[in-house]
Every structure is written in C-alpha cells, then in structure tokens.
Design brief:
The complex is a heterotrimer.
Chain A (H helix, E strand, L loop, with lengths): L1 H31 L13 H9 L1 H30 L7 H6 L8 H12 L4 H8 L19 H25 L2 H10 L4 H29 L3 H6 L7 H10 L5 H24 L10
Chain B lengths: L2 H26 L17 H7 L5 H31 L4 H13 L2 H14 L6 H20 L5 H12 L4 H30 L2 H7 L6 H10 L3 H30 L1
Chain C lengths: L2 E10 L2 E11 L4 E5 L6 H9 L6 E6 L2 E2 L5 H4 L1 E4 L11 H11 L4 H14 L15 H13 L5 E5 L7 H17 L4 E5 L2 H7 L2 E6 L2 E4 L3 H6 L5 H13 L10
Parallel strand pairs in C: 3-8, 3-9, 6-7, 7-8
Antiparallel strand pairs in C: 1-2, 1-4, 4-5, 9-10
Classes of the chains: A mainly alpha, B mainly alpha, C alpha/beta.
Chain lengths: 284, 257, 250
C-alpha cells in the first residue's frame, strides 16, 4: 500500500514533470528535420543548414548572452553594494517591507514602464525638452529598440537587482557574516579587506548557482526584448517565436531547429549545475 | 559612506522603489499625457470608470487572470507538496530531481511553442483550461524544487512517530505534515500564483489571443499605443501582488516571533 | 511470553545489520539493550515498530503475529533520541495527540491528560509551546504523549542521549515510576553501561547485529564482553592509586 502510493506519485511526476518536456523536445526535433509539419515532405538537413548559413542563431545567441551577462553583472554588483553598505538600514520595519515591492512588478509591466520613460516621447525626453537640451522628440537618443539594447538591460536590472538584494541580505544573515566580519577585524583586517576577503566571497560562493540560473532565465526572456528590442538581431526567445509563428510557413522548421539548439544548451547547463554530487553512504 | 550621504541615498532609493507605482497610477489617470508635457494636462479617474464598462474587457480580464492564477497556484502547490514527498522517498531521488530542472530552466514561451501541437490535438488550444494546464506545467517544477528542501530525516521521523502513535494517512497529513509545512505552503502558493499572474509568453502562445489575461491586455494596449489603458491594466497587475506581499510578509514574520 | 522475536534479519546493500534476532520479553518488564552506535539497535527497534521491514523472521506481540501488520496498527510506539514534539501544538495538545487520533470523548481526554501532566510533574505547563520548554521537560512531554495511549510495547532509542547528566538521572527515575504506574512493557536501548543496568529488568548486549540477552544481571556483570568488569577494575585501581590510563577503554 505504502509503496504503491509512492509509485503513484512517481507516475504523476513523470507524466507532468518529465513527459511534456521530452515530448516538446521530440516534436521540435522532428519538425526541424522535416519529419512532421504542414509543408514538410520527410527527413532533410535543409533547415538546419539554412539556420547555420544565415548565422541567425549564432548572432542571436551572442546578442542574448551579452545582454544577459551585462545585466547580471550590473545587477549583482549593484545588489552587493547595497547589501554591504546598507545591511542595517534594510532591517528596519519600513525598508524590510518596501525592498520586496519591486517583486510585484512583472516583466511586461517593467518593459512598458521602461518604454514610457525612455522612448523618444517618454518622460525623460519631455524633461530634456523642458530643460532645453533637445529641440524635439527626435533629438532624444535611442534608448529603447536600440542597437545597444540599453532599454533591455535597464529593464532586466530593474527586474533582477531586487531579487539579488533580497538573496544577499538573507545569506548575510544566515551565514553570520556580521560575526565573521568582526572576527576578521579583531584579527587585524581593515574594512576593505573584510569586504574583499570575507563578505563578497561568502555571498558569491553561497549564491553563484542562483546567479547562473538568473543568467539563463534572462537568456530566454521574452516579453522584455519583445517590447524593447530591435528588429535585428533579436534575443533567442523572440527569434524562435517569430520564426515559428510567422506567416512564412517555410521558416517554421528553422524556428524549431533554433528551439532545439536552445533547449539542448540550457539542458546541458542544468545538467552541469545540478548533476548529483558524490553519493552519501546509507546510514543505519 | 558618511552618515549624511547614506541618509540622502536611502531617501533616493525609497523614491526609486515607489516611482514605478506612482508613475503608473498617474499615467492611468491622465488620458492626454504625452510629449512635450512633463505633467499631465488633465488628471482624473475617468479612465478607471471605463474598467467597469465592458468594452475594454478589463474587468473580464482581471477575473479570468484571477481564476487562472488561483487554479495554477493551488494545484501546483498541492501537487508539488505531495509529489516532492514521493520523490524524496524514492531511492533514485537525486536523478529524478535533475529532471525537474529541465522544464524549470527552459524559457516558458519556447516550451509553449513546442507543446502547442499537443495542446491542439487535445482540444485545449485557445481556451482557459489549456492556459491553466500550460502554466501548471511550468509552475509545477518550481513547486517541486521549492518543497524538496522541506523533506528531510526529521520530517520522516515525524511521519514514523505519527504512524506508531496510531495515526492513519489522512491524520498524518491533516494533523502533522500540513501544519508543519504551513508557511512553506503559503509561500509556494504565493510564488506559483505570481508565476501564473505574471506569465505572458506561454499564455499568448497557448491562449492564441482568445484567453485575454491581464498581461495579454497590457501587450495589446502597448501595441495599439493606448498607453493609458496599458497603465490601468498594469495597475491591475501589480496591486494584487502588493497586497499579497503585504499579507505574506506579515504572516511570515508572525510565525517567526 | 508477551513479546517474541524469532529469527529476524535485515541487510542494507548486502551488509547484514541485524543478524538472526531471537529473544522474548514478559509483560510489564523493561529489556535494556547496551550497544555502541551502528550496532544495529535502531534498525532492530524500527523493525519491531513496523517502520522497517525485515527479510525473514516473525514477531509475536501478545500471542498475535504482527510481522506483516502496519506500524499504525501495531500499538507499539517508537521514541527517538530527539523528542520530536509537534512544534505547532502546545504541551496539552502534544500529549493528547494519540487520544485525538483515536477520537476519544473530549472529557476523557482532558482527565487523562491532566493526570498525565501531574505524573510528569508538568502541571500548569499545559499551554506552553514546545519551544518554551527545557530539554528535560520536552522529553517528559514526549514520554507522556507515548504512554498515555497505553501502547502494548514502548521502544526507546537512546531517549536521554541529548540530556545533561543531572536531568538524565531525574528522567531515569521518572521513567521507572511511570513504567510501574502504567504497566509499560519496553525495550530501552542505550550506549551507557550504567543506564542499561539501572533501567532494565533484563539486559542484553548488541554487537555487530547480534543481540545476546542475559538470563540474569549477574551473568551480564560477569561477562567480560560487556565491559562491566573493566569498569569495576578502573574504579578499584583509582581507589588504590594505581595507574588508570591503560584500562580506560570504555
């Protein structure tokens, strides 16, 4: 009885946790090789070849990775700076509540908000105009839908910096960093040394997996680059969906080919991050 | 940092945190606020009255979003709790846990695009059921990972103790496991509710524009350059989580004291 | 015999942790089992409680074969070294737990729990939460919670292992009293030689999965394998002022 109940749980797990993922991957693989799909006529390497020839995937991957990397580095840096300099302040009743507030804002609203602030007709443009720095809306620099993805990076930072801040603050508390710091000081370390040799290493060592996870999440992010991104190159998810959902049916298979590569890439990352470590022996 | 500059910075930080909320509320009340006006020409609750009128469908969207997110939150939390237990007691749990991370780490919108064929075949493409199931598929791995830290030797000992004290399965859950996991269940519900409430890409793929949740509305209004309605929808999206956050935070704190 | 264990064996990954267990115990008696950690005593208790399965052998309790019975039906209670009080319930509700499960009338529950609180010297503490209690108090609540449901057999796994020696002595006395008052049959596992001698009506020694139950305390004391002789020698030498370092093996 007890065993069969567990087995039922495992069956459920496989049905809703494992099968959909591999089903989706299999479908994408079959589509990308022309085995299934509306216009496809059987196995072919054509779509894969054309994906590599056009260079869309590589460009999009490089673009996405740079954006995600820059955003994560800036967010981690900012959050570290805040967590270290204002640890005490964030423990106050008021701050301990309001630092959670940014979590109430979803990606799509952040994108919308960023657009409202930074577009050529946005709030900053209007302020610049009033100050006489620009003569018309078109004089305002391109900060959204721009080549350097400034809008996307800013939106990403707005989204993930608060997460990192909360994460660092909780690690700071749980790892007794305050005591360790005073210990280091009593051993003769100055403030800079404490930060560089104690606080930052502990915070990063305890959180690096989460930081990598957020990098991967940003890599696959969709709505922010959809609203704030440019036509070309596009971030991975936007590119994949554009190809799969567009009216040019011949492009669908290429879209799935990119989806397959993306999926395999992040799955490998999951494998590396979460592969079971050494076995712990059974205790009697 | 000197105490004074620290103080000034904290005031600046507070303004920064509140700014999006204030800005979106202002925008939602100012129908003619555009270049070159720094402040709105007219300001009033006109737009908000339109929520109650049916033509924008915002109230409808709000209710649909609420229905979907409540369903996803409740089902994911419950399933996540129960199934993470089965996983914990399985001898190969480390390998099984690994599988949880694949759907967790994948972009939901790409997952959705590759799944849409199956949803179409099952007749749940473009309806609420389909959207709930699709969102459940991404919220469930989150719940599994979330609860994997709950199960440990001590919980196993509690389970054994209840058994030797004569408790049956139902009593074990209702009198011990659920009460022990209470605050975690609440936080998990909160998180999975938010995953669903904030979800755009997957919903747009599986809902194909027929299931108009609030995030879909925000995007539609942005595309129509109807920023004032966009701001109202945004407000509807962000204030319920603020409320939840407030309740949740209070609750978590209360439990610690 | 009230409890009879016949040929119980258990292995983990080809390693036998409990080997061919055979012993019996009369009602209302306590069998104390001395053994170092890892000797298989926890596994033995869990098998008797029904929390682990054995590969072979049979268990009879009160003339009934309970080998295939589920843990919740055996009416045997297994107590850990950790007190495992339910953190969400107060002292009263913790003690009343098994009674609520058996759906006894509220009046009966109140009377029984009040009596138990008196016996545990915990009167007036009924509304305290577990985190407001000391280690000894928590262990007492844990005992009360187990004994109140009249278990046929109580299995104690190093119950006082985490207590300081003073509290430990008090708890040993309290347990003896409660055992007599509530007619408890129990197996008491410990790694403490003195505790084993104090608590048991019968004594056994467990080594590498083998349990030997002695016919009498004298036999146990005279067996050099139990370490009692070593201990006596140590104290004797201390008294006469000889060097004690070499024989200090326990």
């Amino acid at each position: 009885m007890k065993i069969s109940k567990h087995q039922l749980g495992i069956v459920f797990f496989i049905l809703i946790g494992v099968v959909p993922f591999f089903g989706a991957l299999l479908y994408a693989v079959l589509y990308s090789f022309g085995i299934v799909g509306i216009l496809n006529e059987g196995f072919t390497f054509l779509f894969w070849k054309s994906v590599f020839h056009s260079g869309d995937f590589v460009k999009s991957l490089g673009y996405s990775m740079s954006i995600a990397l820059v955003s994560v580095i800036l967010s981690v840096g900012g959050a570290l700076w805040l967590a270290i300099n204002f640890t005490r302040n964030f423990q106050s009743r008021f701050f301990s509540f309001i630092i959670y507030l940014p979590l109430a804002i979803p990606g799509i609203v952040t994108a919308f908000f960023t657009f409202q602030l930074l577009s050529k007709g946005g709030l900053f443009s209007r302020i610049f105009h009033r100050l006489g720095w620009i003569e018309s809306a078109s004089g305002f620099p391109d900060l959204v839908n721009d080549t350097y993805a400034i809008g996307i990076v800013l939106a990403f930072i707005t989204l993930v910096l608060p997460f990192f801040l909360l994460l660092f603050l909780s690690v700071y508390k749980n790892e007794n960093i305050e005591q360790l710091s005073s210990l280091a000081k009593s051993l003769g370390a100055n403030s800079t040394q404490v930060i560089r040799r104690i606080i930052v290493p502990i915070l990063l060592k305890k959180t690096w997996i989460v930081i990598v996870l957020y990098f991967i999440f940003l890599l696959g992010s969709y709505e922010v680059p959809l609203i704030l991104g440019q036509e070309h190159p596009q971030m991975l998810s936007v590119l994949i969906i554009r190809e799969i959902k567009q009216y040019d049916l011949t492009k669908i298979s290429e879209g799935y080919a990119i989806a397959v590569m993306y999926t395999i890439m992040v799955s490998l990352a999951a494998l590396i991050l979460f592969l079971p470590k050494k076995k712990i022996s059974h205790e009697t | 940092m000197k105490p004074k500059s620290k103080h000034i910075f904290l005031v600046f930080l507070t303004i920064l945190i509140f700014f999006p909320f204030i800005f979106l509320v202002l925008l939602s009340m100012a129908p003619e606020w555009r270049f070159p006006n720094i402040l709105p020409q007219y300001f009033g609750p006109d737009n908000w009255q339109t929520i109650l009128r049916s033509e924008t469908g915002l109230l409808h969207s709000f209710l649909i979003s609420l229905l979907i997110s409540l369903s996803v939150g409740i089902v994911s939390t419950l399933f996540g709790f129960l199934i993470s237990r089965s996983l914990y007691y399985h001898p190969q749990r480390k390998w099984l846990n690994l599988f949880t991370y694949f759907p967790y780490i994948l972009a939901p919108v790409v997952f959705g695009a590759c799944l849409s064929f199956f949803f179409l075949k099952m007749g749940i493409f473009g309806n609420i059921t389909g959207v709930i199931i699709a969102q459940f598929l991404i919220a469930f791995p989150y719940a599994l990972i979330f609860f994997s830290s709950f199960w440990n030797k001590k919980i196993k000992s509690y389970e054994d103790l209840v058994a030797t004290l004569g408790g049956n399965q139902w009593q074990k859950y209702s009198r011990v496991l659920f009460p022990l996991a209470k605050s975690m269940l609440l936080i998990c519900f909160f998180q999975t509710f938010l995953i669903s409430w904030f979800e755009y890409g997957l919903t747009s793929i599986i809902g194909v524009g027929k299931v108009q949740t609030l995030t879909i509305k925000v995007f539609l209004f942005i595309k129509e350059a109807n920023y004032y309605y966009g701001a109202i929808s945004s407000c509807l999206l962000i204030f319920p989580p603020v409320l939840l956050l407030y309740i949740n935070k209070k609750y978590v704190f209360k439990n610690r004291v | 015999m009230f409890l009879e264990i016949k040929n119980i064996s258990k292995s983990y990954k080809k390693e036998k942790v409990v080997k061919n267990l055979n012993f019996s115990l009369d009602a209302n008696l306590t069998l104390s089992v001395l053994g170092k950690s890892g000797c298989g005593k926890t596994t033995m208790l869990k098998i008797i409680a029904g929390l682990e399965s054995s590969e072979e052998g049979e268990i009879f309790l009160d003339a009934k074969n309970i080998t295939r019975e589920k843990a919740e039906k055996r009416n045997t209670i297994y107590l850990y070294q950790e007190d495992l009080l339910f953190p969400h319930l107060n002292v009263f509700e913790n003690i009343a737990f098994a009674l609520h499960i058996r759906k006894l009338p509220e009046k009966v529950i109140i009377t029984k729990v009040k009596t138990m609180l008196d016996n545990l010297e915990l009167s007036g503490q009924d509304h305290k939460m577990p985190n407001e209690l000391s280690g000894g108090q928590r262990q007492r609540v844990s005992f009360g919670r187990a004994i109140i449901s009249n278990p046929s057999l109580l299995l104690l796994d190093e119950p006082f292992g985490s207590l300081d020696s003073l509290t430990r002595n008090k708890m040993q006395k309290l347990f003896k009293n409660l055992s007599r008052k509530y007619n408890i049959t129990s197996i008491f596992v410990t790694h403490d030689l003195k505790e084993a001698l104090l608590m048991g009506d019968q004594i056994g020694l467990m080594k590498e999965g083998n349990l030997k139950v002695y016919d009498s305390k004298e036999e146990f004391i005279n067996d050099p394998g139990t370490g009692v002789q070593n201990e006596i020698l140590f104290w004797d030498k201390l008294k006469t002022g000889e060097s004690v370092e070499e024989n200090n093996s326990i």
